[in-house]
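Let's sit down with a protein and look at its sequence and fold side by side. Go ahead whenever you are ready, and we will take it from there.
>
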Amino acid sequence: MATTRSPLVVLGGLVAVAFVPLFAMWLVIADLGTLAYFFGFAVYFLVAHIALPGWVYLDANGRESGSPLGWTALAFLLPLLGFVIYYFVGQPDAPHEIETGPQAR
């Protein structure tokens, strides 16, 4: 029987897969330019591939979009362009519902 992993565990694994080789490369080369590249790439990756698609997923779920995972995949695969497309096309007039807990309904 398959089990679903926690999204934070999956996210942590993806970040480790992306950043551990870069950090190892920096340790081998160990110059300031490579360190700046590493941190610049880390900020880009976290914003463009984690924060923006995460926001798209939460917003599409809150608006009860027909395909929140499709919008999230678009925002992840086309980082900035996918976010802009969702912002202008992805049900901008639909009401957004925020669930605050079990008593929300």
